[in-house]
Every structure is written in C-alpha cells, then in structure tokens.
C-alpha cells in the first residue's frame, strides 16, 4: 500500500483519533470481534456490529492476501444459566440451538461467516493459563474460590474508556464482596455449585468471568498482539477495558489490539431497546417481513455511518426496500457486458473509495446511486451530461457498464448480489418457486392468446395477474414480470 490515497483510515477508540490502519503483518491481517452470548434470539442491536465488521473484513480481504477474522460465541454465562433454570432446557441445548439460530440470522443479513468462531467452553485451559500468569505477575489474587483482577496493579487501567477511577466504579455496577481487595477488582474465575457448569482449576471447580473468555480466545487464534478489536460501543466499559487490562498484564509489552473500533448504538423509534419498554426487535422479526427483508435491513444499517447512533423503524425498512427495487430494476434491464472492462473497475473503485475514510458507507451508497442513474441514462440512450456533471468524471459508459460496477462494488458492501429477476419476482431466497411457476404459465397462456389474436383473453390474464400485484413488462427480450 505505497499510495497514501489508498490508505485505510479508521477511528481508534483508544487514541480517540482517526489513524492509518497499518497491520503488524500485512500478509495476514488479524481481527477479533466480540460475538453473542447465546441464550436468546439475536436482536437488531446485536446485528449491527456483525454487519459493520463484515463490511470491514470484506474490504480488508480485497487489500490483503489473508485476513483472520475471529468472532467468538459466549456459551458460558450467568444469563444462560438463569435461562436454563427458568425454562428447564439443558444449558448445552440452549447454547447449541441459539448459536445455530444466530448463524442463520446473520447469513440472512448477507454476513459471511468469520474464519474462526470459537466457543468459550472449549478454551478453558487457555483462560486458566492467562489467570495463572496474572497471579504470578501480581495482577490477580485468589480469594474464597474466586480469582480477581487487581485494578490497582495496572497503571494503564481506564485508558480505553477514558474514565477516572471514580467514574469507573460508578459504571461497573460493583458487587460489594468481602473477598475483594478493591471494589473495582473484577472476577476472572468464580466457584460453581454442583448444578452449574464448572471446570476443575487450581482454585477449585468453577467457571470463568466473561472478560477473560475473549482475552483467551484472541490469544489462542491471533497471538499476544493483533491488529484490530471490534464490538459495539456499549462494550468499551467494562468488557473491553477489562480484556485489555488482562491481556496487557499477562503479556507485558505486547500491547494487545493495535486499533479498537466500536459501532454506535441502535435505537428503535428513537428509544433505546430495553426489556422494560418492551421494544425489543429481533432479527427474526425483521426477516418476517419477507424474503427481501434481510438485504433491506443490511442496507438500512449501512446508510448510517457505523459510529453514529441509528434509529430503526419499519418505515425505514420499507424505504430501503424501495431503493433495492430501483437497483434491481436497473440491474435487470442492463445488458450483459464484460465485467473486466477497465471502466467498470474504475467506476467501482470510485464508489468504494469512501470506505477508506473510516468506512464511510453512506457516501459509498450515494455514489452507487449515481452509478444507477448513469446506467439508466446510458441504457435509455439519453444524455448523460447532467449525471456526469454531478459525478465530476467524464465517464462515457456503455449500457451495462455502470450496472457491472454496481455489482462489483456491491460485493464489498454485501449488497446488490441477488438475482435481479428473482428479486423483482418477490425475492427469491427461499420459498415462492411454485408462485413463480404459476406466473410463468399465465404469461405463456397470455402469449398464446395474443398469437391467436384473442385480445380479450390476453387482457384478462394481464388483469388477473395485476390483481395479484404482478406487473408485466413487454420488451425486446420478451415479457418479464415483477411484483409491483
Ligand atoms: Zn469480548
């Protein structure tokens, strides 16, 4: 990456500044993102970091020969234990089922699986090894079956969240416990009763605290220092502050993650999602709107810059669907063209360039809108002057070329990759094949009626389809259809 214009800038939460992303090993970029605690269906706030870091991973894969993207699954946690007590379902069954549902939901949002998706319960020995290092280094102590991290032993504690010691205490919802030396000390290991999940350890049978899980899995798959740690803004404190303290103290001088990237909150109709407000929206709720809803929700998320708060409303989902309809109509009508033509790569590169500026997806999407306008103008043989003026480039695209650029650039955003014909016919991800066949048969019958000049029958079939919301378009390539 010698060209500075080609440098990727990312806002780093640790230095609170935008800085060039310079991987430790440019041939293998290493990335860790906190994954779900699996006891319930993912809500849309859980989905936002998954989509944001999916786009970042796709972008990095274009720029580096290898990317190792690790996103964990937290399958040991007191919330899981509580759910099991409440419902009677065994813990292992809850976590296996919920993890599978999470993966299914994220795939429906167009997210590629991470390279490694480690389960916390399979990394207990690594957690014990880090805790032993912390005790040996004077950063942790055992007391009454617990092991606690000593916050006072880490002069850097509070660096990531930028909180003063008083604010740290206020934010941590501290449990006052007699075995703590300092109220800010947090749990690395805690004892388990016989009915709770537990593992043998030098401190008796017990289970890990949440923070140590991520330190252990990041260490196992990415090493003592790696390039980028991501997650939602709400994880900065205490989770990421504590992860950083554990890892930096267990492996002195290594620095843990070089860059910390955090996405903003997701609101619902202007309010924070909470159990008490009863306004939780699950990914499953969003997907219930139809086969188009996964891609529409992804577009909705990417229309807001990842660091900004994002307000979800069903009306915004519908709006995103309308935009996707416009794109798929343009892609459907575009003639086939050589996707390897230099102008296609040039236009796609122009559309994606804003991603290098701290992942500016709203601007990249705006440029794709310009390319769609260009495609529409080119394919109707109209004058492209006005469009070209807005783009500020002298592109004289032949019909199909801007569409090919939309497809190429869309692959990095995870958008506009569906089959345009299937999209127009109601979204094709699953189901509905029978419906499509019936429409095709009706179109055939209408064509036959027209051939025998039975105009009344042809019109009747068209009207019958229109009543089902099916719009027919007669064109040089024959009759196509879409749902109106
Ligand atoms: Zn984590």
From TrEMBL:
UniProt GO molecular function: ATP binding; cysteine-tRNA ligase activity; zinc ion binding
Top-rank EC class of the record's enzyme: ligase
Keyword Protein biosynthesis: yes
Keyword Signal in record: no
Residues annotated as binding ATP: 275
Binding site for Zn(2+): 34, 214, 239, 243
Sequence motif 'HIGH' region, location on chain: 36-46
Cofactor notes: Binds 1 zinc ion per subunit.
Its EC number(s): 6.1.1.16
Gene3D superfamilies, A to Z: Cysteine-tRNA ligase, C-terminal anti-codon recognition domain, HUPs
Motif ('KMSKS' region): 272-276
Catalytic activity: tRNA(Cys) + L-cysteine + ATP = L-cysteinyl-tRNA(Cys) + AMP + diphosphate
Any GO BP: cysteinyl-tRNA aminoacylation
UniProtKB keywords: Aminoacyl-tRNA synthetase, ATP-binding, Cytoplasm, Ligase, Metal-binding, Nucleotide-binding, Protein biosynthesis, Zinc
Residue ranges annotated for the Cysteinyl-tRNA synthetase class Ia DALR domain, each copy included: 355-424
Protein's cellular compartments: Cytoplasm
Any Pfam family matching the protein: DALR_2
Cofactor(s) of this protein: Zn(2+)
InterPro entries registered for this protein in UniProt: Cys-tRNA-ligase (IPR015803), Cys-tRNA-synt_Ia_DALR (IPR015273), Cys-tRNA/MSH_ligase (IPR024909), CysS_C (IPR056411), Rossmann-like_a/b/a_fold (IPR014729), tRNA-synt_1_cat_dom (IPR032678), tRNAsynth_Ia_anticodon-bd (IPR009080)
Cellular component terms per the entry's GO annotation: cytosol
Subunit structure and binding partners: Monomer.
The family this protein is said to belong to: Belongs to the class-I aminoacyl-tRNA synthetase family.
Protein name (database record): Cysteine--tRNA ligase
């Amino acid at each position: 990456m010698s060209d500075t214009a080609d440098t990727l800038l990312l806002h780093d939460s640790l230095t609170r500044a935008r800085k060039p992303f310079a991987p430790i090993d440019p041939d293998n970029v290493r990335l860790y993102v906190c994954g779900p605690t699996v006891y319930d269906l993912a809500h849309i706030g859980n989905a936002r970091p998954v989509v944001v870091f999916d786009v970042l991973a796709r972008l990095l894969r274009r720029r580096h020969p290898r990317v190792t993207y690790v996103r964990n699954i937290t399958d040991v946690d007191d919330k899981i234990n509580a759910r099991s007590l409440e419902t009677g379902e065994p813990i292992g069954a809850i976590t296996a089922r919920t993890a599978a549902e999470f993966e299914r939901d994220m795939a429906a949002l167009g997210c590629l699986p991470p390279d490694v998706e480690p389960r916390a319960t399979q990394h207990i020995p690594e957690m014990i090894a880090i805790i032993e290092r912390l005790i040996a280094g004077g950063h942790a102590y055992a007391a009454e079956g617990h092991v606690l991290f000593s916050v006072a032993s880490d002069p850097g504690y509070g660096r990531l969240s930028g909180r003063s010691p008083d604010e740290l205490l206020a934010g941590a919802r501290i449990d006052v416990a007699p075995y703590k030396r300092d109220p800010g000390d947090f749990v690395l290991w805690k004892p388990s009763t016989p009915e709770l999940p537990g593992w043998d350890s030098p401190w008796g049978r017990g289970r890990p605290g949440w923070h140590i899980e991520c330190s252990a899995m990041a260490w196992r798959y990415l090493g003592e220092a790696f390039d980028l740690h991501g997650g939602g803004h709400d994880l900065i404190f205490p989770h990421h502050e504590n992860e950083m303290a554990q890892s930096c103290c267990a492996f002195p001088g290594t620095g843990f993650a070089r860059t910390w990237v955090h996405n903003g909150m997701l609101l619902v109709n202007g309010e924070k999602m909470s159990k008490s407000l009863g306004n939780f929206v699950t990914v499953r709720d969003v997907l219930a709107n139809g086969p188009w809803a996964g891609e529409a929700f992804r577009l909705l998320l990417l229309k807001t810059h990842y660091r900004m708060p994002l307000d979800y409303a069903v009306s915004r989902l519908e709006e995103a669907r309308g935009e996707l309809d416009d794109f798929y109509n343009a892609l459907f009508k575009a003639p086939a063209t050589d996707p390897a033509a230099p102008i296609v790569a040039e236009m796609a590169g122009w559309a994606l360039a804003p991603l290098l500026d701290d992942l500016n997806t709203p601007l990249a999407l705006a440029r794709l809108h310009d390319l769609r306008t260009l495609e529409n103008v080119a394919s109707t043989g109209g004058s492209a002057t006005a469009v070209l003026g807005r783009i500020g480039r002298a592109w004289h695209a032949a019909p199909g070329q801007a569409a090919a650029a939309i497809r190429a650039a869309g692959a990095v955003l995870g958008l506009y990759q569906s089959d345009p014909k299937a999209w127009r016919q109601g979204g094709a991800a699953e189901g509905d094949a029978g419906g499509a066949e019936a429409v095709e048969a009706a179109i055939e019958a209408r064509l036959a009626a027209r051939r025998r000049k039975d105009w009344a029958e042809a019109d009747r079939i068209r009207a019958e389809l229109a009543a089902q919301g099916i719009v027919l378009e007669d064109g040089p390539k024959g009759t196509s259809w879409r749902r109106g």
